[in-house]
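Notes from hallway chat w/ T.B., transcribed later so I don't forget. T.B. wanted the structure written out for a chain they're using in a teaching module, and asked if we could keep both sequence and C-alpha cells in one place. Agreed to drop them here.
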Amino acid sequence: MFNNAVNIRDAREDDLGEILNIYNDVIINTTAVYSEQPHTLLMRKDWFNDRISNNFPVFVADLNGRVAGFSSFGHFRAWPCYRFTVEVSVYVDTSFRGKGISKMLMKSLIDRAKEMNIHAVVAAISADNQISISLHRSFGFKEVANFKEVGYKFGRWLDLKFFELLLSNTTKTF
C-alpha cells in the first residue's frame, strides 16, 4: 500500500484526459458501466461541468501527478424531492487496483455528502462486481434492490443491485 503517497483532491479540467482513459477502460473491459461505446473527451467535459455546476464533487486520487482513480456523486433522480439523495461512482485505473485507492475515494465522497447534508447515498452495482459490492458494504451500504436481467453486455444478461447508505447527520429543516 502506498496510501501516504496518494493525495485525494478536487479534480481539475486538465485531469479529464486521464479520467476519460480510466472510464473508457471500464466501459470496454468490465460490466461496471452499462455502456458499450467509449466516451469522448467532450462527453467527459459535459459530465464534469454538470457536476461542478450542481456543486457535486469530483475527486481524483493523485499519485505523483498521475490520476490513479476518480470518484463523484450526482443526482439520484433530478426531481426536487430527491434533493437529499445522491448516486456515487468510484473508478480506479487498472494499474492501481487493490491498493486501497477506492476506499480513499469513497471516504472522501461520504465525508462530502455529510458536509452537504445529504441523507441517502445510493450505488447501482452490477451483480457480478463483487469487488465493488465488498467496497460498498465495508462502508455500511446495504443492498436494497436486485433488478434481474436489466442490462445486456458482452453477450449476456446482467443483474443490477442497488445499495444504500443512510447518513444520520442530516440537519436540514424541512
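Follow-up for T.B.: Strands lie at 6-10, 58-63, 66-75, 85-92, 120-126, 142-153, 156-166. Might be a good example for the class.
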